[in-house]
Amino acid sequence: MRKRCTPATCLRTAGLSTLRAALALNLVWIGRLKFEDYEVENIRALVTSHPMFAPLVTKLGEQRLARLIGVAEIALGTLIAAKPLAPRASALGSLGAAGMFATTLSFLATTPGVWQENHKAPKLSIVGQFLIKDTVLLGAALVTLADALEDARC
């Protein structure tokens, strides 16, 4: 006999499915953009001022580094989406995404112009506002990681 879905359980299931699909779509879509010249330009200030990425810019060049980041984002998004078929692979994708979002949040400390000057309280600039959304994406990656790990044990 099949268990009946309570409203809370149904909402949780729908929310997790929506969250997973949205996270995967965001990663694949944004990863694809890394192959466009304007996106290479958009991330220039972020990667050239970051201690982990600046040496890679010097070694690989901006375009190759952007494409490498794009491939990683597409791969992580694809792995996250694979949960129904491969929950362990999906967990790995979510773990990688969590690491990636933690890294991009570190740009808040390394990128010039993230904070607007001449304000009493800290105020984010447009670049800072762009980066702060990764707190939500980090949370989504952690939730999808936990969900995939639960299924991987079965």
From TrEMBL:
Regions crossing the membrane: 89-110, 130-149
GO CC annotation: plasma membrane
Segment forming the signal sequence: 1-21
Keyword Transferase tagged: no
Keyword Isomerase: no
Keyword set, alphabetical order: Membrane, Signal, Transmembrane, Transmembrane helix
Protein's GO biological process: response to hypochlorite
Name of the featured protein: Uncharacterized membrane protein YkgB
